[in-house]
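Hi, here's the filled form for the chain we discussed.

Project: internal
Contact: R.S.
Residues: 70
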Amino acid sequence: MRMNELVEVYDSTRRTAQTTATWRLRRWARRVRRAIERDRTNQIEQVRLVALESELIERGVQTSRTIPLH
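And the returned structure, exactly as it came back:
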């Protein structure tokens, strides 16, 4: 898949996530994680998960999975 298509998936997911309730975001992220576990090569689901987790981190309901660099 081309990079511009992945960027569009990310942007679209973020826009939708911003207007979605937190409990629905958590459920959506769980579903996406399960889809990735079934097919680890699915780039769209991986990008979608990054967008969902980013929104959850901004809301303060999930911690970042990466270690911040100083």
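Let me know if anything looks off before we file it.
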